[in-house]
Amino acid sequence: MLPLSYLRMALSDISIEEREIPHQQSLHGLMDPPHSMAGGWRGLLREESEHQWLAIAVFFLFILVGAFALEGTQHFVGDTVKPLDAQHNGGLVLDIEYHQDNSSYTALVYSPGAGYHFFTEHVDDGTTSVIYTPDTNDLGREVNFVKTMPDGEIVFSVSDNQLIGLQSNLMVSYEYSTNNGEFGILDVAEQTIEGATQRILLTQEGQNKSFRGVSSLIPTPAMSMTAGIQWHSVEAHSAGMWLAIGSHSTTAGGDGSSPASPKTRAALGWIAWDGTESTPVLAQLDVVTYPGQFHSISSMPTGLVVGGTETSLHVGFDQEILDLEIPCSVSVADSDGTVWFIGERGTDTITTWGGENLEVHLLSRDIPLDTTAVGVNGDHIHVHGTNADGLPIVWSVDVTANGSIESGRGFLSLLFIIGGGTLLAIMGKYAFEQRKILN
Questions:
Q1: How many angstroms separate the CA atoms of 38 and 415, rounded?
Q2: What is each CA distance from 41 to 24, 27, 164, 434, in whole angstroms?
Q3: 370 has which bridge partners?
């Protein structure tokens, strides 16, 4: 008879052997397929290959670089502060007009220690044509405005019943008859109808402002004045119709405001004048109900755009008015007819209007200046003013960067998709090949 301890040892060996059989079978592929696949992928992940880690590193680097590039295209990068190397260096530009046929400009510049200088700088040859200077003819402080006419002539006024035009290197003086009275000239607008040029003047009539047409160098009588209206600017709208902007002051307390400080509202005036000897007529007056003032009128293919401190308007040729709801410190149309709305110093966006859709562009830096004058020279808008320290600077905007930024963003997005897809395909192919090797 066998000892009890011997039987216990035998049973123990049998039990151990029976428990080890499934484990030995799993090493020969007898385990279920899903567990085998998971084990294969674990083996693949444990596989160390310098090519594998290099591919992963390149992929993540590509993601980072692409993200930074796409983020950069979200900012408008066509603006810069120009170095002050022009003739107006060191002076505050109060008014400026860039010539249409070259890079020259005519500017009214003020310097505290030197007074008012009015000159034309011919950038092509580096020469300067002095018009007014404190040393010889100190009339710069009398310049009421500087404006470019549709034919490229630059006009201004310094005395009553007189308008002076600059054509190339010639200075032409328009002396208007005093038969219908004397008046100062604050602004002028022109349009050509059937080959005939019509010119209307915004005039200073004593303490008030009005409009006069000019027919054969003879000014018409002044338009009847409207109480409480002070006109600021005028522009041709359509045949026989002119658009004026101004401000309307109510009688003290008449609109519910304090009698000590009556409100001043922006006003639009439709001036009817057909180019004859008849007196211009205020055909319609629109007083805006919201606060703020209009400060500029720009021409574009679809009509006129009126820029304002609280909102801006698009006035179509059918006289339909569209409120664009864009405040700005100045608005200007580029050579393609797109209007640019430039905000106050510290604003981080700039808005454009091409006649259909508003586009808001995020700037790479805040607008750096308080605006005093603006002009268009080719593909650039030059904004003149003072920085936070009160020093004169010039901020320039490249209008061609608008389209290049949009197309660049799309190109980078496409490149990012193609490149990322290619890298993922390469990594997937490599992983599949390694999986086959492990199997």
A1: 35
A2: 22, 17, 86, 9
A3: 386
Residue range 379-405: mean pLDDT, rounded: 84
Exposure of 44 by Cβ count < 10 A (0-12 exposed, 13-18 middle, 19+ buried)?
A: middle
CB-based contacts of 377, cutoff 8 Å, min separation 6: 98, 103, 105
Q: Which two tokens stand for residue 84?
A: 């002050």
Distance, in Å, from the CA atom of 164 to the CA atom of 288, rounded to the nearest integer, reads 34
pTM value surpassing 0.70: yes
CA distance 140 to 133: 7
Angle of helix 50-72 relative to helix 401-438, nearest 10 degrees, comes to 160
Structure tokens that stand for 171 in this block: 């200075």
pLDDT tens column, 157-168: 999 999 999 987
N-terminal to C-terminal alpha carbon distance within the chain: 54
User: CA distances (Å), 91 to each of 105, 323, 352, in order?
Assistant: 15, 37, 29
> Quick count: other Cβ atoms within 10 Å of Cβ 79?
21
Distances from the Cα of 369 to the Cα of 95, 111, 374, angstroms = 16, 18, 12
Q: Angle of helix 33-46 relative to helix 401-438, nearest 10 degrees?
A: 120
- Those residues whose C-beta lies under 8 Å from the C-beta of residue 264, and which sit 6 or more positions away, are 247, 248, 249, 293
Read off the pLDDT of residues 271-289 as tens digits, 9 standing for 90 and up.
999 999 999 999 999 888 7
For the chain, give the longest Cα–Cα distance.
154
Q: Which helix (H) or strand (E) holds 210?
A: strand 208-215
